[in-house]
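SAMPLE LOG
Freezer: B-3
Tube label: C17
Construct: single chain, 291 aa
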Amino acid sequence: MKILVLGSKGQLGQCLKDQLAITDHDVVYTSRGKIDIADFEATKNRILEIAPDVVVNAIAFTAVDKAEEEHQAADRINHLAAANIASICNRLDCWLIHISTDYVFDGISEVPYKEHNRTNPQGVYGDSKFKGEVAIDASGCKYLIIRTAWVYSEYGNNFLKTMLRLGADRDELSIVGDQIGCPTYAQDIAKSIVSILSCLDLKGSLSGIYHYCGDEPCSWYDFARAIFLEAEVQGFKTPSYVMSITTADYPTPAIRPAYSVLDCSKIESCFDVSRSNWRDGIKIVIDRLQG
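STRUCTURE (predicted):
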């Protein structure tokens, strides 16, 4: 199977490289220097030239607060470029695997969100990602939209690496404790995508939206505590005191969902994948950063 990975230098893109390296798929990896998805015509020509069986779109405008000011840039990447890629996939009759987010929900639920639950994004980032989902569905292409959340890994910039950096510099930290979600190790997302690839020819009728995230809900404060506990075991300097604060104590330009836990039962039953064990993921990441 010929796979095109868009965004090969991002967190998920690099994890996909790791996981696809142990398969016999023919994989083309591209970063912005090779395919800039904001350039629609060049993107179309290049993808048609490559003619893949599956396109994995791991590119997104993910700067949540920055999106509040740069809404056109966020919309171009998360919505319009996604629509363009989906149109190309429809023309090629190839699959599109597209990564979306828990931020399409408003966070007022008290139970995990299922794929069919009402979306109501509260910020520019979530709105642009939702519009991208709608455009992909309208394109007529075969697609899997995988909504995930709180992604971290040994690559790129993420919450875990930020905590290690701040923990090494400061003796006290204040972390938001009233936003609940599910941390997700990017290597686990990549493993699940690789596992799903073998099902695509057999299960064309399962085109649609799927949720994939960590196996246990927690707050950012809980997540930070788990990171520091493991970091201390592995010899990293950690803060002496970590305090839980409210969202109101730490205002940001973009509204974050207070509760964005995703129900992953659909992807588990359809493709026999397991949710991300984020506590194990923390150990693996810190060990790899140590090395």
